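Q: I'm building a small set of examples for a reading group on sequence design. Run inverse folding on the following structure and report the sequence directly after it, with nothing in between.
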């Protein structure tokens, strides 16, 4: 350095480096960095398990009814395709499914297979009636697409039994 500057030259350390660094600050930074990596690893593990939608063992939930079970996504993706599968184990001439309005506020129905014999509006819900043929089990598949993201809580009624269902739509 030239004479008259205000910069001081750090002493030469025993390891031969000429550095003057605050080690305590660097150690705090490394701790924060390690914590962030653990958080990122946790998020990746949740994604592999299915908690970010579209696959994995935790991506779907089974809602049990007396003689029916509905497989509904636990996590769905905004503007992504998903499916609800309802399996009726009891032999009956027809099955009735009632889905409350909050479901239709969040999702768009793309296809129902097989198509319902009757579809009517009830107070705060839609009711679909499916005729059956042949021995049980019978299955209905509803292909849907999430149109908005956020928490969704709705009710599904199958043959008179009502269950609350909660799912999240991620952006």
């Amino acid at each position: 350095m030239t004479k008259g500057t205000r910069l001081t030259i750090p002493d030469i350390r025993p390891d031969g480096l000429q550095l003057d660094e605050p080690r305590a600050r660097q150690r705090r930074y490394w701790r924060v960095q390690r914590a962030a990596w653990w958080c990122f690893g946790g998020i990746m593990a949740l994604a592999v398990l299915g908690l970010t939608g579209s696959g994995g063992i935790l991506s779907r939930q089974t809602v049990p009814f007396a003689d029916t079970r509905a497989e509904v996504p636990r996590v769905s993706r905004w503007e992504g395709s998903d499916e609800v599968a309802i399996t009726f184990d009891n032999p009956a001439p027809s099955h009735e499914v009632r889905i409350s309005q909050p479901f239709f506020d969040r999702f768009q129905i793309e296809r129902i297979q097989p198509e319902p014999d009757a579809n009517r509006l009830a107070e705060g819900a839609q009711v679909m009636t499916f005729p059956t043929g042949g021995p049980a089990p019978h299955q209905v598949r509803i292909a849907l697409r999430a149109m908005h993201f956020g928490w969704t809580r709705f009710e599904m009624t199958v043959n008179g039994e009502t269950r609350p269902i909660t799912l999240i739509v991620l952006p």
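The longest strand covers residues 161-170.
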